[in-house]
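Give me C-alpha cells for this 118-residue protein.
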Amino acid sequence: MFFIFGNTAITPSLEEGTILEGVTRDIVMTVLREQGLTVEERKINIDEVVEGYKNGKLTEIFGSGTAATISPLKELRYKDFSMHLDVASYQTAPMAKKILTEIREGKRPDIHGWLVKV
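Here you go.
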C-alpha cells in the first residue's frame, strides 16, 4: 500500500509485519523516487490517513503487486467513516503504472536490470 501526501509516498515498513516484501513494491518505490517523490517506509496508522483525507493532504491510495502492478483505491472505510477518493484525478499511480508497463513492454529502457528473459 502507498499513501500519497503531496510529494511524499508513505508505505508501511517491512519491520511492522503488516505488509509483504515484494519485488513490485521495491520497483514502485524506486520509480517514485526517480520521479522526484520522497518515499518513506514507516509505520502509518489509520488516524494519520483519516486526518490527511479530512484536511485534503492525502491525494491517493494504491496497492502494488505482481498481478495488478498498481491498483488504485477508490474507497477506504474505517469504522463508520468512509473516505472516497477520486481515482480519475490520480497522477502518481497512473504515472508509476505507465512506467512499469513501458519497461515491461520494451518501450522504456530497463536501466535497473529488472527484466529477466525466460
